[in-house]
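Form 12-C: Joint structure prediction
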Amino acid sequence: MSDKLNIIGISGSLRKKSFNKMLLDELFDSASGNWNSEIGDISEIPLYNADVEANGIPESVINLGTKISKADGLIIVTPEYNYSIPGVLKNTIDWLSRIKNAPLKNKPVGILGASMSLTGTVRSQSHLRLVAVQTEMLIMNKPDVYVAQAQNKFDEEGKLTDEKTKSVINKFADSFTIWVNKIK
Amino acid sequence: MSDKLNIIGISGSLRKKSFNKMLLDELFDSASGNWNSEIGDISEIPLYNADVEANGIPESVINLGTKISKADGLIIVTPEYNYSIPGVLKNTIDWLSRIKNAPLKNKPVGILGASMSLTGTVRSQSHLRLVAVQTEMLIMNKPDVYVAQAQNKFDEEGKLTDEKTKSVINKFADSFTIWVNKIK
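Section 2 - Result
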């Protein structure tokens, strides 16, 4: 018997050695006492096209939507590309928003981001919060996690070495557990 | 000998009977006395992935980038998905921004949008202007073209029937010709 929360995580970066994926792993490790976690794959989701949708929403989208629907909460980690969220992430959200049972609607969501810049994804996370309004995700407000200059905060094996960031991530994990339980 | 401008247009909607594609056709018809126009295909552009990029930017991206580089100006028509630009369009811009000669940089750009809603893509166009800052596109400021309730403004054959919109599009075409020549 487990009282653990089921949490699914997706990354807006598809790169294997993505700092955002490392960040997601770190969060899931940190919360492993309270969460059963799973990574959702968005690499197989095709470009959104209403003509494709008319013949049925693709299996990769349905599978991800089903996993999100079943999960107690969703974590999105995102880089920042051209002052905003990656097209790859937005495309996934665009598809998910077309599923009839609306897997994102009223889902507790936590967002975090890492980048090599000094501003650490502030613009992309800010824009994601706007997109969340129309899709009716319930994004936790605080704490914000902006991992700036990520190249200096992870080691060769992809493990977080920065103590300050570790402490913020622990706090984020605890806050998200409370957020999910509040909404449930 | 032709003094016509070479203008390339892309649509953020991949749907065949997209109102945005109809709008682009209408603009190109309206400007045919001054522009040689071409539609750029974004339907074959893969999801952005830095690991893919490390092995070479995909041919579909390079081809589009080359066409944009050669063109005097770029027109982007965009729907609004979830309060923002489609992931499909953002993904195209993310890829184009990775090409070394930066095809979007200092390119005169005109943006227009159509939607079935009352707000006619105001949010997505507004966000596209922000993304344009980082990519250094030179988007013309005015006139704004927000085609709201597009389903009432095009006929069965996809031709624009709304006189007010036709007049705005003519004005847009003339303004864009001036804009491109000013920057050249």
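Section 3 - Comments
The longest helix of chain A spans residues 163-183. The domain at 5-183 of chain A is CATH 3.40.50.360 (Rossmann fold).
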